[in-house]
């Protein structure tokens, strides 16, 4: 398998990446960078627990090979979102509304919600449902 060398920005910090091209982004984030907020729920891109923002778009990191990401790619994980004011407010809203149970799926849901805010800072309920539809919660079904 070929090895890639790239420079990405992860949570606002430039990093030099050297990894097998077929390595999953989720594994790289968790194992190499220690960013464990994205979880592996299904490993097939179906549950949304591993969602991160890649160039401002929510993507399931369990099916993205690192070789697919170009130089200059920007990745935002839940660890980066919580450092931003809007991210902290969003996390607080989840807590206040009782939207947190075991917490396994919450990072992916918050990332998906956070991605919506630049497009629509005060989205109506009907605008929130589609972005969250790719996130499955094991506790509530």
Helical coverage, percent range: 25-40%
Name given to the CATH homologous superfamily: Beta-grasp domain
CATH topology: Ubiquitin-like (UB roll)
Strand arrangement across the biggest beta sheet: 2-1-5-3-4
Element-by-element helix/strand order: EEHEEEHHHH
CATH structural architecture: Roll
Count of the domains: 1
- Assess the beta-strand content as a share of residues: 15-25%
Shape: globular
Structural class label: alpha+beta
Q: What can be said about the biggest beta sheet?
A: 5 strands, mixed
Mean pLDDT: 92
| Helix count from the secondary structure assignment | 5
**Integer-rounded radius of gyration:** 15 Å
Distance between the termini: 39 Å
How many extended strands?
A: 5
């Amino acid at each position: 398998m070929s090895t890639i060398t790239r420079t990405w920005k992860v949570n606002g910090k430039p990093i030099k990446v050297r990894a097998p091209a077929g390595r999953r982004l989720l594994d790289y984030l968790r194992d190499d960078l220690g960013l464990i907020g994205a979880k592996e729920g299904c490993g097939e891109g179906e549950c949304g627990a591993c969602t991160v923002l890649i160039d401002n778009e929510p993507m399931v990191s369990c099916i993205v090979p690192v070789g697919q990401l170009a130089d200059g790619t920007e990745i935002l994980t839940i660890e980066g979102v919580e450092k931003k004011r809007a991210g902290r407010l969003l996390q607080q809203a989840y807590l206040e509304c009782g939207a947190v149970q075991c917490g396994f799926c919450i990072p992916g849901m918050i990332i998906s919600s956070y991605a919506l805010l630049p497009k629509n800072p005060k989205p109506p309920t009907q605008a929130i449902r589609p972005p969250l539809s790719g996130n499955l919660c094991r506790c509530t079904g």
